[in-house]
Amino acid sequence: MLIIGPPGSGKGTQAERISERLGVVAISTGDIFRAHVKGGTPLGVEATRYMDAGDFVPDSVTNEMVRNRLSQDDAGNGFVLDGYPRTVAQVDYLDAILAAGEQELGVVLQLTADDAELVSRLLGRARETGRSDDNESVIRHRLDLYHQQTEAVVARYAGRGILAQVDGIGGIDDVTDRVLACIGNVLGAPVDGR
Ligand code: ADP
Q1: Is the CB–ligand 1 distance for residue 10 below 6 Å?
Q2: What gap in Å lies between CA 164 and CA 172, rounded to an integer?
Q3: From ligand 1's centre to the CA of 75, what distance in Å?
Q4: Selection from 96, 114, 108 nearest residue 154 by Cα
Q5: How far apart are CA 178 and CA 97, in angstroms?
Q6: In a 3-state reduction of DSSP, which class is residue 194?
Q7: Peptide bond into 190 cis (omega under 30)
């Protein structure tokens, strides 16, 4: 499955929880990039200039990285992918990866929240963790890119009938409960709660 949501919607947190409940690996492109940046790898050096500006890392880098990650053994039984695809070109690329591996998407979960809430959450996170892309102008740019590019990704999956939308406002546990109920509905089988 995929989890899609604007920056600050809590998709990383919920992806981890879904991964535990479903017993499949959570894969976050943002986390993979940040690990490369921290490790000072060539990919990290390339990615950091885009990330710090709130821009998308180019597809030439991102697509290949996702393909490699999904080809690892632990993704063979399914996965929760967080942060990819963000553009319709990435949707096409993911379709090709999955077709080659004879895998199919079960659910695409969209977490929603309004921009005012997202900006306030991200500014709070900036004070706590100092993520280099959490300052107000970069936050607004990341939100703009979400509206301009990633909403079209959501529309694509809605057209395929596999989109589930969940309100991301509220306590973390409440959102998890909603998410698990929603996934269960789409899959046609209940997913165990806490
Ligand atoms: P957020 O959703 O809060 O912006 P992420 O941790 O998901 O945070 O992503 C951080 C950054 O990593 C993005 O701003 C972007 O620069 C890069 N990134 C992550 N996923 C992708 C992707 N699918 N395509 C291009 N860039 C990406």
Answers
A1: no
A2: 18
A3: 20
A4: 108
A5: 30
A6: coil
A7: no
CA angle (82, 116, 122) in 5-degree steps: 50
Q: How does pLDDT run across 138-183, given as a tens digit for each residue?
A: 999 999 999 999 999 999 999 999 999 999 999 999 999 999 999 8
Ligand 1 neighbourhood includes 121 CB (under 6 angstroms): no
Cβ proximity of 149 and 87 under 8 Å: yes
Q: Would you say the CB of residue 6 lies under 6 angstroms from ligand 1? A: no
Nearest CA to ligand 1 atom 6: 30
Instruction: Please determine, for residue 126, whether its predicted confidence score (pLDDT) is greater than 80.
Output: yes
Residues 27-55 have pLDDT tens digits of: 999 999 999 999 999 999 999 999 999 99
The model carries a pTM of 0.94
Separation between Cα atoms, residue 34 and residue 43, nearest integer Å: 10
**Euclidean distance between the first and the last CA atom of the chain, given in angstroms as a whole number:** 20
Instruction: Give catalytic residue positions.
Output: 11, 86, 125, 131, 142
Residue 136's SS3 state is helix
Give strand pairing partners of 176: none
168 lines ligand 1 (CB under 6 A): no
Residue pair 98/154 in contact (Cβ under 8 Å)? The answer is: no
The Å distance, Cα 85 to ligand 1 centre, comes to 10
Residue 176 token pair: 């998890």
What distance lies between CA 30 and its chain's CA centroid?
8
